[in-house]
Amino acid sequence: MTGGSRTRLIGGALLVAMLAGCGSGVERRESIEIEKYSAQQIFERGEFELERSRPADAAFYFSEIERLYPYSNMAKRALIMQAYSYHQEADYENSRSAAQRYIDFYPADDDAAYAQYLLALSYYDQIDEVGRDQDLTFKALQALRTVIERYPDSEYARSAILKFDLAFDHLAAKEMEVGRYYLKRQHYAAAINRFQTVVEDFQTTSHTAEALHRLVEAYLSLGLTNEAQTAGAILGHNFRGTEWYQDSYKLLTGQGLELKSRGDNWLSRIYRQTIKGEWL
């Protein structure tokens, strides 16, 4: 080992020891004249904080490299680690900001795919926290699509595809939730609008069968038997093995109705297109 290497190693070890001996959080940070240390030493401190499960402190040290050594190669590494640390802290806004800066500054770098993936996760990981607000879900879908399309050969593309499908399913689930709410309160027209959205726009999700059954329920309640029978026909053709088909079959046959396409309505058009292959 050369004298310079020994000096850097000793310096890094001293930094870790000195900082570890101080208090925590802002008090510890302010007690150290961080400008005295190299980018490598500060980076190692950030890694140390991550190992101690202190991602907020790690993000601080990585951000200091960006501030003190903005044009160094270490600043590039620190920026992606800053985005990761903020994400570990569930500070999604700052994680997204750091990831976006990395994409803007280093679009051709190997870690650009990971930065885009972190950006997508900053939306995706909040999906279950937003109630009926779908804005973050749409943003997650857009960001995940960017990973898939811009970095198709990256190790993150497959995970992005899986999360995209789950986020898409989440949108359908929210439509179903609102539709059930209206159906339970006998607001049939409003319920039908929600279930129609699922059938037309989210037909590849796991909620389509239930949406068709709920349409049978809603249309029967309104006395619109043609629409109810047609929804049952689609359900019987595509989802015969589900509980939703069984429930719709009992409802329709219990009223002397068949599960067949009848009339000229939006469901009969779907029946002709998807089952009979008639597109005109």
Please outline the helices and strands.
Elements: H1 3-20, H2 25-30, H3 39-51, H4 55-68, H5 73-88, H6 92-105, H7 112-124, H8 135-150, H9 157-184, H10 188-201, H11 208-222, H12 225-238, H13 243-254, H14 266-274
Keywords: Cell outer membrane, Lipoprotein, Membrane, Palmitate, Signal
Organism: Sediminimonas qiaohouensis
Protein name: Outer membrane protein assembly factor BamD
Q: What kind of assembly state do the chains in view correspond to?
A: single chain
Roughly how many Å is the radius of gyration? 28 Å
- The whole-number mean of residue pLDDT values reads 87
Query: H/E element string?
Result: HHHHHHHHHHHHHH
Total count of strands: 0
Q: Major β-sheet, in short? A: none
Apparent shape: elongated
Number of continuous helical runs: 14
SSE-based structural type = mainly alpha
How many domains? 3
Strand-residue proportion: under 5%
Instruction: State the low-pLDDT regions, or none.
Output: 1-18, 20-24
Q: Into which percent range does the helicity of residues fall?
A: over 70%
User: Distance between termini?
Assistant: 78 Å
